[in-house]
UniProtKB/TrEMBL annotation:
Domain C2H2-type: 10-37, 38-65, 66-93, 94-114
InterPro entries on file: Znf_C2H2_sf (IPR036236), Znf_C2H2_type (IPR013087)
Keyword entries, A-Z: DNA-binding, Metal-binding, Nucleus, Repeat, Transcription, Transcription regulation, Zinc, Zinc-finger
Chief place where the protein resides: nucleus
Family: Belongs to the krueppel C2H2-type zinc-finger protein family.
Gene3D superfamilies: Classic Zinc Finger
GO cellular component: chromatin; PcG protein complex; transcription regulator complex
Protein localization: Nucleus
An example Gene Ontology biological process: positive regulation of DNA-templated transcription
Name this polypeptide is given: C2H2-type domain-containing protein
């Protein structure tokens, strides 16, 4: 029921974050401990989250399950497809608060701000 009430019973003892599910706290604690229990069987990389290992494995297999419905280009992750789609829509959601120049990716804005 804590999901619906917004109540967060599980408090991190390392920082001020709290969670409504114990499993979310467990995953969060890996940021503090550095624990990476999900090991790639093809290389030396390890990951805190299983979903990150799944995404990483696509690099080894070449799998690209996400396809652009505009041009047919394939991508290994949904976030790369989302960024690519901005080349079709012209969307630039990251805007500089100094000069109002806009960017398709946050990292481009960060580089611009340096």
């Amino acid at each position: 029921m804590t999901i619906h009430t917004g109540e967060k019973l599980y408090q991190c003892n390392q920082c001020d974050k709290s969670f409504s599910r114990k499993s979310n706290l467990t995953i969060h604690m890996r940021k503090h401990t550095g624990e990476k229990p999900h090991q790639c069987s093809k290389c030396e990389k390890a990951f805190a989250l299983g979903r990150d290992l799944i995404r990483h494995m696509r690099m080894h297999t070449g799998e690209k399950p996400y396809q652009c419905n505009q041009c047919g280009k394939d991508f290994s992750s949904n976030c790369h497809l989302t960024i690519h789609m901005r080349s079709h829509t012209g969307e630039k959601p990251y805007q500089c608060n100094q000069c109002n120049k806009a960017f398709t990716q946050n990292c481009d804005l960060t580089n611009h701000m340096r």
